[in-house]
């Protein structure tokens, strides 16, 4: 089985294929929202904790937010910081909510070397939670695709 097929099989089975990534340590990082591991586990569901704090990934096509079409704002499920306006959401066909631009001062990025090729990982700039990755195959006007885990987000209708 090729590496791409293995990744898709792992994702479809609900397994995290970013487990080799170093988890964000919000208790030692300079984030505005800085909770202990115990506090994060109390605040988040186990699946949200896996994604936001351990760099996990939800199975593709599993998030109801992938089909959300109402106007509003997508926020971090960890700290409720507004991240993406609904007007920047588009259907990427990947099975994860995708956006072409975040709100100003909402996200931060870092390099992710968990797979063979480095990728750009996207984090909430306020709590450091892992949201997903950004790729350069998105639509105009930015050409970017912020591919986010739906469980890392909450939706606030306008």
Number of H- or I-type helical stretches: 3
Distance between the termini: 45 Å
Our estimate of the beta-strand percent is 25-35%
CATH class: Mainly Beta
The CATH topology corresponds to Metal Binding Protein, Guanine Nucleotide Exchange Factor, Chain A
Strand segment count: 9
Show unreliable segments: 1-28
CATH superfamily: Peptide methionine sulfoxide reductase
Structural class: alpha+beta
In total, the number of domains comes to 1
Give the proportion of residues in helices: 10-25%
Strand order in space, largest sheet: 3-4-8-7-6-5
What's the overall geometry? Answer: globular
Run of helices and strands: HHHEEEEEEEEE
Keywords:
alpha+beta; Metal Binding Protein, Guanine Nucleotide Exchange Factor, Chain A; six-stranded antiparallel beta sheet; three-stranded antiparallel beta sheet
Architecture overview:
With 158 residues, the chain is an alpha+beta fold. It has a single domain, classed as Metal Binding Protein, Guanine Nucleotide Exchange Factor, Chain A (Beta Complex). It has three helices and nine strands; from the N terminus they run αααβββββββββ. The chain has helices at residues 3-12, 37-43, 46-54, and strands at 72-76, 82-85, 89-90, 98-99, 107-112, 119-124, 130-135, 145-148, 153-157. The protein has a six-stranded antiparallel sheet with strand order 3-4-8-7-6-5. Strands 2-1-9 form a three-stranded antiparallel sheet, with no helix packed on it. β6 and β7 form a beta hairpin. It is globular and about 40 Å long. Mean pLDDT is 84; it is low at 1-28.
């Amino acid at each position: 089985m090729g590496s791409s097929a293995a990744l898709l099989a792992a994702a479809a089975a609900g397994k995290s294929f970013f487990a080799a990534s170093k988890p964000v340590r919000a208790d030692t990082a300079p984030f505005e929202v800085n909770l202990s591991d115990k506090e994060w586990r109390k605040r988040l569901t186990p699946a949200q904790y896996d994604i936001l704090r351990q760099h996990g990934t939800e199975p593709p096509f599993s998030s109801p937010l992938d089909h959300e079409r109402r106007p509003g704002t997508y926020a971090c499920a960890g700290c409720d910081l507004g991240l993406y306006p609904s007007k920047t959401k588009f259907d990427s066909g990947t099975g994860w909510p995708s956006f072409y631009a975040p709100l100003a001062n909402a996200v931060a990025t870092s390099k992710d070397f968990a797979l063979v090729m480095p990728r750009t990982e996207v984090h909430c700039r306020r709590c450091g939670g892992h949201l997903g990755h950004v790729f350069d195959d998105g639509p105009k006007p930015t050409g970017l695709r912020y591919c986010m885990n739906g469980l890392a987000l909450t939706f606030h209708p306008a």
